[in-house]
Amino acid sequence: MSLQLLLMRHGEAAFSSPDEMRELTQRGREHTLQVSRECLDSLAGIDRVYVSPYLRAKQTLQLIGSLAELPAAETYAGLTPDSDIDALIEWLQPQQGKVLLVAHNPLLSRLLSQLLGDSGHYGFDTSTMAQLTMPLAASGCAELDWIKYPR
């Protein structure tokens, strides 16, 4: 069995502190809903959902869940903006099926580049969603199925 990994960056958030408590802006909510609607077919059949402990990521997931039927999410501390990329990939290795991660940059850009085996930088604006397919989570093992940016 392979791993189909959906990556979602949280919607635009207001600037405030502490960083962990920043809330989505109206624009962030609108963009998240727009991208989620356009990716609804891909959100069907998700096996597991993991979300950053930060408020803006949890709010993003709530919006996705208002449109798509998702399993209960698990909060994972390794999905914060500056989490260790190698530790995250190691944590992902036993995962199979269809998994949704709701997290932050620069983590998601770095994860995407590493899984694709590409040293380039992928733009991962707020409310961006991407889907990758791989036999297992390891550097250079993934193929990018698509990436969807908000309009």
UniProtKB/TrEMBL annotation:
SMART domains named among the record's database cross-references: PGAM (SM00855)
Gene source species: Motiliproteus coralliicola
Gene3D superfamilies: Phosphoglycerate mutase-like (3.40.50.1240)
CDD domains membership: HP_PGM_like
Descriptive protein name: Phosphohistidine phosphatase SixA
A GO MF label: protein histidine phosphatase activity
Pfam families: His_Phos_1
One annotated Gene Ontology cellular component of this protein: cytoplasm
SUPFAM superfamilies the record matches: Phosphoglycerate mutase-like (SSF53254)
